[in-house]
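User
Please review the sequence:
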Amino acid sequence: MTRIFVPKDAAALALGADAVAKALAPHATIVRTGSRGMFWLEPMIEVETDAGRIAYGPVAAADVPALLAAGLLTGGEHPTRLGRPEEIPFLARQTRLTFARCGVIDPLSLDDFRRHGGLEGLEKARAMGRADTIDTVLKSGLRGRGGAGFPAGIKWKTTADAPGEQKYIVCNADEGDSGTFADRMLMEGDPFCLIEGMAIAGFAVGATKGFVYTRSEYPHAIAAFDAALSVARATGILGPEFDIEQRVGAGAYVCGEETSLLESLEGRRGQVRAKPPLPAHKGLFGKPTVINNVITLASVPGILRHGHEPHQAIGYARSRGTMPIQLAGNIRYGGLFEAGFGLTLGEIVNDIGGGTRSGRPVRAVQVGGPLGAYFPPALFDTPFDYEAFAAKDGLIGHGGVVVFDDTVDMAHQARFAMEFCAAESCGKCTPCRIGSVRGMETMDKILAGVAVDKNIALIRDLCHTMKFGSLCALGGFIPYPVMSALEYFSEDFRRADAA
């Protein structure tokens, strides 16, 4: 029978992919895959033909009879026909390295994984030895994709050189930033890639155990990864030399911070630890620990498979390789776009994302989740690069790009940042715990038009205290969205005052 590939990614499921698969099942062999990441086309199905795979989308279950009548099984013409998926402009423009298999393979088929280069990186690492494996990661220029952009190879070398028989690999899959879904997509669409990356890291630093800390809001990713772990153990990829356990968090945003995550993994309340000591010296259960996020670890197999040069050759300035840019909010073409660093924010929002879904002008873009700054179109020439964003008091974070049109009230967005911090603070340090509450109260006065100039000055002073006095990035970066809203959208803070 003809094979039809239907995504079981959470985004596709939310748009009716299961119903589409059920409607097609009597007529073809259904292969469930991850998503290609073009969410405005989901559910996007692909039919295997003599000319290659032909995509159709978005497809609803009600469309199936008409599609079959139009010759779906041989790639026939239909209004939803998109042609070869690789030729769809959104996908054709990408540099797919980490997400090359997503939407292409059956995520739980180890044979599919191997046919597309899976486990070659792990085999090469074992052949070259621990020191050369770490050196390859160092030379690649791979930086942590979780937000801080710290060189992964330095973390690995520090952990490898630290004394101690027991060491750990911890994968941070607590993807809590607004507008982000890359971790979820990879764990649902190519879970063996993450397993291979963690196994390489374990081999390189001498760790025998790994943990994946996954957010509870990702039931499909949790199930897919657990199933992949079972296959990996049954086939000897995981075992006594290195095994992985998945732990599910309880929804605390602060547990995305590495030391708070460690506290939670150890069975305690998720609170930030003071540093030093660094986790590489004294991490999980007091042992040397590598902590990387999903995309960082999933980038490693390709680097080992192809060598450090191809990864080093892509990117911009000190940011090497590709980044999965996640387009969300009020945007026409929402989804995942993997590309080398260096695209400008304007190219990402307007050329790739197609501007706003509403058709109204873009007013603000927040990059880096709820701690990221709001950039106006005047800053759209900023390259997507860690240092370039930092130079303008912004951050890339996990690569989420959330777009707002000209109906947004930026004073309310600033107020929300303080509210978010108040709700999610672990409570350990005073600037974050108390400052966020006082900030919310002060913003309420500004919104009510009470002593606006005086209260804006107070907000600025409070942000300075939080930025430099907080123990971790939650309190330290909340000033970014607040201060950027004040800097670029000051008129929104005086509407009540003017009235």
Notes: Residues 315 and 341 are 4 Å apart (CA to CA). The chain has a mean pLDDT of 93.
